[in-house]
Specification:
Elements: H1 9-31, H2 33-61
Length: 92
């Protein structure tokens, strides 16, 4: 990039080492099918969130009226908890 600040030798070394760790982690993830699928799903979810945020910012920049999100979130299902037994003698 043309406008990058000049890096010291120490910063270049640190960045190269960090990049090496990043590449090694990527290889480990790509070689694990389950982990790779989960990472791709997470990337899709993050991309969707980022797009929604960017769309909202575009609306603000264009001067469009902003309306609050009125979607109701689903409440998590609740289960009745069983009362705890404090039997100090073990099974009776």
């Amino acid at each position: 990039m043309p406008n990058e600040p000049k890096l010291t030798a120490r910063e270049k070394r640190w960045r190269a080492e960090d990049d090496a760790r990043t590449l090694a982690n990527a290889q480990v993830i790509q070689e694990d099918p389950q982990r790779h699928v989960l990472a791709k799903r997470a990337a899709q979810r993050i991309a969707k969130q980022e797009k929604e945020s960017a769309d909202a910012m575009q609306n603000v920049a264009a001067g469009k009226k902003v309306t609050p999100n009125t979607k109701k979130k689903k409440k998590p299902a609740t289960r009745k908890k069983k009362p705890q037994s404090f039997n100090v003698f073990g099974k009776i």
